[in-house]
Amino acid sequence: MNEKVPLVSVVVPNYNYARYLDARLTSILNQTFQDFELILLDDASTDNSLEILDKYKNNPHVSHLVVNEQNTGSPFKQWMKGILLAKGEWIWIAEADDLCESTFLETCVEQVQKYSNISVCMTASKYIDENGRILPQEANYWGKNKPAVSACRFPGKAYAEHNMYWNNCVINASGVLFRRSYAINLFDSSFVNMRYSGDWVFWFQMLLQGDMFEIYAQLNKFRQHTAKVSVEGVRLGNRIKEDIDVLFLMEKTFPEMKKYKRRLAHGMIYRKIKKVNDADKRIELSRYLSERLGGKASDLKLFHLNKYLRFICPWLVTIKRDRLKLYDYIW
C-alpha cells in the first residue's frame, strides 16, 4: 500500500534553541490543519536541543530527525536540506525560536488551494520578546498602514522588481508557506552559501517563478533576541556585503531598471555603511559597493534629497511609489 503523501511539509531548523523548542513544536502539532509531516533538523547544537528533539522523534507527524555532526555555518543550507527531504506540495520553514497561531496552516492552505501559480503565501507577523510577550513595534513592511482587505494576490515578477528590490519584504520565514516544486529549482542558487541575506535571494527567486499572496492576519510570532544571526550581521557590517550581492543579482535580473531607482537603492546601502563603527570596514564596504554596483558617495546625497523632492515632484520615483499598489491587485 502506498504511503499517503502529506500536503504540507513543516521544516524546523534548529541551532541552540533548546529553550524555545517545546513551545515551538507544540504550536506546530496543535495546528487546526493536520495534513503535514514534520522534519526536524539540528545543526550540531551544543545545548540540550537533542534531548528535547528526541522526545518528539516518535510522534506520527515526524518523518525525519537529522542531526549534523558539524555546524554548516549557514542557516540556508539547512533550509535546502529540509526542502530536499520534503514530500509535501507546500513547505513551511518554522524557525525553532518562533511561534504561531493555531490557524496558521489552515488559513494559508485554504488560500493557496484556491489559485494556480501561487509561489509564496505570506501572513502578517507580530514581534515577541525572549519570553514570548508581544512587542509594540510594527513587524510588517507596510508599517502602520494595515491594508483594509484580508488578503491580496500580486504578480510575482512585478513584486520581485518593485517590492523586494528595496528590502526583504518577507521578514520571517516562519510566516510563509511556499511551493516545494519551485524551491527545488533553487538547489544551485547563491542563497544556499550565504549567512545573512540568503532569505532575501530565496524569496526574490521564488517570486520570479510564481505569484505572491499576502494574508493580513497576524498569524506568525517572530521572536526578537540578541542571539539572532541577523543582529550580529548588522552590528559588524557583515550583512551589508551580502546585501550588495543581492542588489547585483536583482539589477542583473532586471537590466531595464532605471538608473535613478538604482542610485536610490545604492544610497540606502551607503547609509548602512556609514553606521558601521569600524572605519576600515566602512572603507572596505564602500569600495565593494563601487566595484560591484558602481555605487558612489553621491548616491547617498541623492537618497536624502529625494525625501524633499518627492513633495514637489509627484512623478519622482520613491520607495513607496515604486511598490505595487494594493488596490490594483485585489482579485
TrEMBL record:
Pfam families annotated for this entry?
Glycos_transf_2 (PF00535)
Chain ranges of the Glycosyltransferase 2-like domain: 9-181
Q: Which SUPFAM superfamilies match?
A: Nucleotide-diphospho-sugar transferases (SSF53448)
What this protein is called in its record is Glycosyltransferase
